[in-house]
Specification:
Length: 266
């Protein structure tokens, strides 16, 4: 049974299907065929063709005349540019670049989208990989920060399950994740030590609003050799100082904190 045959027949169905197709392009650096899109989205091929025609006509997609494959279109590029500026991300880039230069490691800024942390700015977006950077919340320092500084109930944490293991160090138990989030909140930063990929260490802190919630997560990523144990507190403090600056450039005055950030406890 395809996914669309199991969906409720309501007015929002076409919207959900369209968004499912658009999200398929974030996972591929290349043009994608209609049949592959149908398979990934779990839709019937006839439904997929109809939606692709509508998205192509409105500029959300383009179709290569030689291969008949699809790619993201100019309307998506236009909206992405508008969103980047309206969210203030163009003002965040210099702060991230300066942080990266001071620390010698990669600096990234992410937000929560469902069960993932989505990187919107920073060094991980450089290069020619052509993929969206969407990471599971439970296995990343970015995700732990976004969860720790939120109003999560135990039921909402359980709803993240199954917590897929990406390495042998990934937290896969919801109870253990809740305990980890408490430690993160107490320490003032999160650590990913080989939980999402072997040989990668990440330190992350929240960009907080006036309600003490994480609007963004800011991470420093490198190898354990570049971020050794005895310098964790320094990296976390550098990230926290940058996060304080980002509050000013990313949040309107009415949403900014007035109290000082709690100290880092490594």
């Amino acid at each position: 049974m395809t996914r669309d045959s199991a969906q409720p027949r309501d007015g929002a169905q076409a919207v959900h299907r369209t968004l499912a197709l658009l999200q398929c392009f974030g996972d591929s650096p290349h043009d994608v065929s209609a049949s592959e899109l149908a398979r990934r989205a779990g839709l019937a091929l006839s439904t997929t063709h109809r939606l692709l025609q509508a998205m192509t006509a409105t500029g959300f997609l383009e179709q290569d005349p030689d291969t008949a494959r699809y790619r993201l279109g100019p309307t998506v590029a236009e909206l992405g540019r508008v969103a980047r500026h309206r969210r203030g991300l163009h003002r965040a880039e210099p702060e991230l670049a300066a942080l990266s230069q001071r620390t010698g490691v990669t600096a990234d800024l992410a937000v929560r989208v469902g069960a993932h942390a989505v990187i919107l700015a920073g060094g991980s977006l450089d290069g020619d990989h052509g993929r969206a950077l969407r990471r599971p919340l439970h296995s990343t320092a970015l995700g732990k920060v976004l969860l720790a500084w939120s109003d999560l109930s135990d039921e909402q944490i359980a709803a993240l399950s199954p917590l897929a293991p990406l390495t042998d160090r990934t937290i896969t138990d919801p109870v253990a994740l809740r305990a980890e989030l408490s430690r993160v909140r107490a320490a003032g930063f999160a650590l990913n030590d080989g939980e999402s990929a072997s040989g990668v260490r990440t330190v992350a802190v929240p960009v907080l609003d006036a309600a003490d919630r994480a609007c963004f997560a800011l991470a420093l990523r490198a190898s354990p050799a570049s971020i050794p144990d005895h310098r964790l507190a320094w990296f976390a403090a550098e990230a926290a100082a940058c996060a304080d600056a980002l509050e000013v450039v990313l949040l309107p005055p009415t949403r900014r904190r007035t109290a000082a950030r709690p100290p880092i406890r490594a």
